[in-house]
């Protein structure tokens, strides 16, 4: 082996992003986010994936993300707060911008273009891009009527009311302000006040909820609970999705379930090889269902994809798996979403990467401010 060539290849790979690094600024000052590599560089990965290097790229647990109506990408991280990406630069929001490095658990854009951010311990932030006083962020906590300061999921109904899934149950922010914007639904309706982790809506208009101790839905007037085949309640439902066909997908501590409106199927680990908690379930524009796999113990199962139209041959499967071996940035996957060009964005414990159907692109901060 030509070790000189190998050394040069590794050297230039580590510096490749430096030349295209974009230094985003906030209020005229460069972000204080440390600029470091967060993944050991391996030659085989360089030959199979692309690496993009940007200052201020998210570099730790990216729990949630979305693309807004203007085309900008938003990412919420566990330790370092909020980021945006306009496909040229990453921007990291600091305390001076009105939010700081709060842990962001959930994210949603409402019909008016406001970005809602559910946090760990700090309630909910609302980013209004049209604010004229320069104060784009509003913060609401229990002091303002929110039922809990831990907000796991956010959803807007057809009336424009915002549903907030929190560690103390369900809360609604009413669009018609009368001085009492927040309504504690769990307390009022006699629902459990344990944690609710996820919200989705199906094609009939029902709103579904995945909670610590149950799965239930709202039909516009009444709440109903969904029981498992044995009559027991579902436990620890971390993620829930209603797909375009009307199926309800549930990811909980016991694995993966699919409800077609009549029957509940437990999709076993033997069928799927999914042995970790399903943190996120997402349906792309082609009808593929994606599963982000992780757990609290620091392990992850990577990314799984269910293709409902796949042909099953001898020993075939409709599930495909992606891990670090295939170019995924990290095996602990917390969020998945698709942009307007059909590119899949993946939030991991080490930042973000994309998948275009063929190639993974990992977005990493450069080695140092001064380059190699």
Commentary on this structure:
With 372 residues, this protein is mainly beta. The chain has one domain: YVTN repeat-like/Quinoprotein amine dehydrogenase (Methylamine Dehydrogenase, Chain H, 7 Propeller), CATH 2.130.10. It is 8% helix and 39% strand. It has four helices and 31 strands. The strands form eight sheets. It has a five-stranded mixed sheet with strand order 3-31-30-29-28. A hairpin with a 4-residue loop joins strand 22 and strand 23. The radius of gyration is 21 Å and the shape is globular. The two termini are 25 Å apart. The relative contact order is 0.13. The N terminus and C terminus are likely disordered.
Describe the structure in brief.
It is built from four helices and 31 strands. The chain has helices at 3-16, 43-48, 185-189, 269-272; strands spanning 25-26, 29-30, 50-53, 62-67, 73-77, 81-85, 90-92, 104-109, 115-119, 124-127, 137-140, 151-156, 162-166, 169-173, 182-184, 196-201, 207-211, 215-218, 223-226, 239-242, 248-252, 255-259, 264-267, 277-283, 289-294, 302-306, 319-322, 333-338, 344-348, 351-355, 360-364.
